[in-house]
Amino acid sequence: MHHLGLPVADLDKAADFFQSLGIGTVSDEFIFDSDSKEDHEVFGKPTRMNCRVRFVQIGGIPVELIQPLEGESVHKDSLEEHGDGINHIAFVVDDLDTEREVLEKQGYPVVVSARHKGAEGGLAYFDTRERFGDLFLELLENPQHGAD
Known about the structure:
Elements: E1 3-7, H1 11-21, E2 25-26, E3 30-33, E4 37-42, E5 45-46, E6 50-58, E7 61-70, H2 74-82, E8 88-92, H3 96-105, E9 110-116, E10 122-126, H4 129-132, E11 136-141
């Protein structure tokens, strides 16, 4: 497991909350911008989006705090439908294409995908909501910035 993804309406308030609990270390902020990726798609359509991101390390579990800024994303949709809360579990894989094929054959369609510019690997989110409630599965090959 690489991380749990938690979309939040306010990144600063979410980071402050975790810091106030004294249970985790909060990373510096970075911006995820789909322009830094190739072939970024959401629900099969080329999409531009960006978001503010910070990680909270709680014991051995990294939690990715994601505040959508612009564009369409599963994070924005999750916030609009359910408010702050976990919406994906991410795992690192050696071969994204092979694992993607396996999951699609099992009936889990890709809802977000992108490739790294100038490097091997990328990411894919799979629609596992029918099986696991409102939870997506994210696979990462060669993660950058600690996440994608």
